[in-house]
Specification:
Uridine Diphospho-n-acetylenolpyruvylglucosamine Reductase, domain 2, alpha+beta, 448 residues, single chain, metal-binding, oxidoreductase activity, acting on paired donors, with incorporation or reduction of molecular oxygen, 2 domains, iron, Cyt_P450_CS, 15 helices, 3-stranded antiparallel β-sheet
């Protein structure tokens, strides 16, 4: 799709199926126009058929229709979970989860076949999942010893997989009743299982609160204690709304962090000079006698540049989450009807030669001394979106990405398996809602 920009310009209009109008934003200039001047007109969400089971969108901060209830959901996130004070207070939780990740990696490496390598992204995913489990529910939910935790983990993996597969029912709505790919059926099953387990967590917490047991306040307590203003907010959150809210935090947080760390490590292994440079920087700042800490991140400009450059080339959501026009709109001279699906091609924008010199090359140095960041103000680099519907968990996710990657680089030397060279690493992407590596990175960690 990125190649069509040369022929059709910065905005692409697609007509797919019988009723799907799709507008694709292909350049930073067009993205800036959308987010700066038309953000409200494009603020609704286009919801795929696979996301409809269990009335999920109605309680989802990411998918809820634009309006008072969505603003209320977002306010809970920004005030109670992703504000700087809360993130700082939960440093010990992330420290424990990353320590466990490093132990799991060392154990897996010790039991792996010689020269075979391990899938490191799996352990980053587990650490992210447990970090969210502790912040939200005060539980480790990727614990191999817990049957309940394993069931929840597997159900959530299923939800992520089914929501990321392109669905013919979204192109030809008249086929929805047939569910030809069984995606709605699979999503109904796995989402139902995940909600059933969250119901157990809710019941347990309510019983603990009745008994006066105090284990410290987590995000579930915030949801249970919420009292609305009686105007544009509900008096209390329903159990269904709380369950969807909790599921969303896991869905949004685990996948993007682990995928981004995997791509960054892959690019470093493909470019040994960059790997040497970032490890040297970490060694100088952290030293050999202590652990990598979150407080080190601000003193590591090259590592920050590595993350930015990796996100430029490999945004977690190559088209962001699709938007939809709230009303008939005129955009860059075009008449856009109400209900048009809008895709922002962040993958193409990050590789646009009009924005980036030598765009296909991995060059972290391009960010040194630059004020460009991923927080939605620089439209040539928007891997987490921009405007009103920018990723609400960006402050926490961004912190966890740097902490996980820095810890991996500080604690281990990384080698490729036998018969794999830097130039032969498979760089294919599995293009769906998310853009993971098609073949998971296998590496050999050795204690530094």
């Amino acid at each position: 799709m990125a190649s069509l920009k040369q022929k059709y310009g910065p905005v692409l209009w697609l007509k797919l199926g019988t009723s799907s109008n799709i507008m694709v934003v292909q350049t930073a200039q067009a993205a800036a126009e959308l987010f700066k001047n038309h953000d409200t007109s494009f603020a609704n969400r286009a919801i795929g058929d696979a996301n409809l089971p269990h009335n999920y969108p109605q309680g989802s901060p990411a998918l809820a229709p634009y309006g008072p209830f969505w603003r209320f959901l977002r306010r809970i996130c920004t005030v109670e979970m992703f504000v700087h004070k809360k993130i700082t207070e939960t440093v010990p939780v992330r420290r424990t989860c990353v320590d466990n990740m490093l132990k799991w990696i060392e154990k897996a490496a010790n039991s792996a076949e010689k020269g075979g390598g391990i899938e490191v992204t799996r352990y980053v995913f587990l650490a992210s999942f447990n970090m969210l489990g502790n912040l939200i529910l005060s539980k480790d939910l990727a614990d191999p010893e817990s049957e309940e935790a394993s069931e929840f983990f597997n159900a959530m993996k299923g939800i992520m997989e089914w929501s990321g597969i392109p669905n013919v029912s979204d192109i030809f709505p008249f086929l929805r009743k047939f569910d030809l790919q069984n995606l709605r059926k699979k999503m109904t099953r796995d989402m139902g299982k995940a909600m059933e387990i969250v119901s157990i967590f809710l019941k347990e917490r309510k019983e603990e609160r009745k008994k006066g047991e105090d284990k410290g306040k987590d995000f579930l307590d915030v949801l249970l204690e919420f009292e609305g203003n009686g105007k544009d907010e509900p008096d209390k959150l329903s159990e269904h709304q709380m369950k969807v809210f909790i599921l969303e935090m896991f869905l949004a947080g685990s996948e993007t962090t682990s995928s981004s760390v995997e791509w960054a490590l892959t690019e470093l292994l493909r470019h040994p000079e960059a790997m040497d440079k970032v490890k040297r920087e970490i060694s100088e700042v952290v030293g050999p006698n202590r652990k990598f800490e979150e407080s080190d991140i601000d003193n590591l400009p090259y590592m920050q540049a590595v993350i930015k450059e990796s996100l430029r080339l490999h945004p977690p959501l190559p088209f962001l989450i699709p938007r939809e026009t709230v009303q008939d709109t005129k955009f860059m001279g075009y008449d856009i009807p109400k209900g048009t699906r809008v895709l922002v091609n962040t993958w193409a924008i990050g590789r646009d030669p009009e924005c980036w010199e030598d765009p296909m090359s991995f060059k972290p140095e391009r960010f040194l001394g630059s004020k460009l960041d991923v927080k939605g103000q620089h439209y040539e680099l928007i891997p987490f979106g921009a405007g009103r519907r920018i990723c609400v968990g960006l402050p926490l996710g961004h912190r966890m990405m740097h902490f996980a990657l820095g810890s991996l680089l500080h604690e281990f030397e990384w080698e490729l398996p036998d018969c794999v060279s830097p130039k032969s690493i498979n760089m294919d992407e599995s293009m769906g809602t998310t853009a993971r590596k098609a073949l998971s990175l296998k590496v050999i960690p050795k204690r530094a």
